[in-house]
Write a structure and sequence with these properties.
179 residues, mainly alpha, elongated
């Protein structure tokens, strides 16, 4: 009888030990799954942001390229846009910049990214500022205006890059996505 009790006790210990180690591996797997889910959500969110930025980007790039050609002394006159064409492109770029600002404001940070929500919203403030500068000062020939917009865009990329790196992902280049 004592042998039977000893064998049963030993069996119970082994079963309990096996269940305990199984629970630990399940919680480890759960943490890895949560991190993978966060990465996936962040990458999906990046795609959504890029989509908003690309939606009106062509009009902005067309104006900035035409403006650069218009003021470039090395560009032949035949290749330069007319003043009327430049004005038309400026209007389109201004409206595109405003629409982009509204698109950015319409984005909402997914609940899975709540830990990074403050940083993401701060990055969006910089992005909104970049496009606001473009919209409000499109007609100013001062190159520092473009530099200010680019500076704000770079701040946005840096802040978003930190969010990606904290999640274990490589820092993206939103500027390259728009090329």
């Amino acid at each position: 009888m004592k042998k039977l009790l000893s064998v049963l006790s030993l069996s119970m210990l082994l079963i309990v030990a096996a269940c305990g180690s199984n629970t630990n591996s399940e919680s480890d797997t759960s943490g890895e799954t949560e991190q993978a889910d966060t990465k996936s959500v962040l990458l999906d969110f990046q795609s959504e942001v890029v989509s908003v930025l690309k939606k009106h980007n062509d009009a902005i790039v067309a104006y900035e390229s035409a403006k650069a050609a218009f003021h470039d002394s090395e560009t032949p006159d035949a290749d330069k846009p007319s003043t009327e064409e430049l004005e038309e492109l400026k209007g389109s770029a201004t409206e595109a910049s405003k629409a982009t600002v509204e698109g950015i404001k319409g984005l909402s940070v997914p609940a899975e990214l709540d830990d990074s929500k403050e940083e993401i919203e701060s990055a969006f403030d910089d992005l909104i500022q970049a496009y606001t500068i473009r919209a409000e000062q499109a007609d100013i020939d001062d190159p520092s205006v473009q530099e200010k917009a680019l500076e704000q865009f770079t701040k946005f990329e840096d802040k978003m890059g930190k969010v990606f790196e904290e999640t274990g992902l490589i820092k993206p280049s939103f500027a390259k996505e728009l090329q």
